[in-house]
Description:
This protein is mainly beta. The protein is built from 2 helices and 11 strands. The protein has one domain: Jelly Rolls (Sandwich), CATH 2.60.120.
Amino acid sequence: MQAASGPLILHPVQVFREIAEALQFDGEKMKKNGIFATERFFCDVYAFEPGQSQSGHRHAGSDKVYYVIQGKGEFRVDGAERTLGPGSAVFCQAGSEHAVANPGPERLALLVFMAPPPR
């Protein structure tokens, strides 16, 4: 990518991230912590305390992937449900209804990739 004044150089913090440093929980509601973002893609780490959830929703023009890094979560995609733990991934195709819940007792942390970002 070229800027008007020369080549675009990204600062290292924008290229390399420590997920543990970005991961923050909120006792009131599920917390989205930004990791990377461009106009074509984003990666967040979502943090759920026990009992927190993200209700069912859709993204008409965006695909999403959830990757479990900590805890266990209950995932629903278009009516199919699974409980998954670390190392598992979930693909939510554009237009699919998807939801996540943390039944506890542990915290749940997910890497979330989405392209393109919803507008």
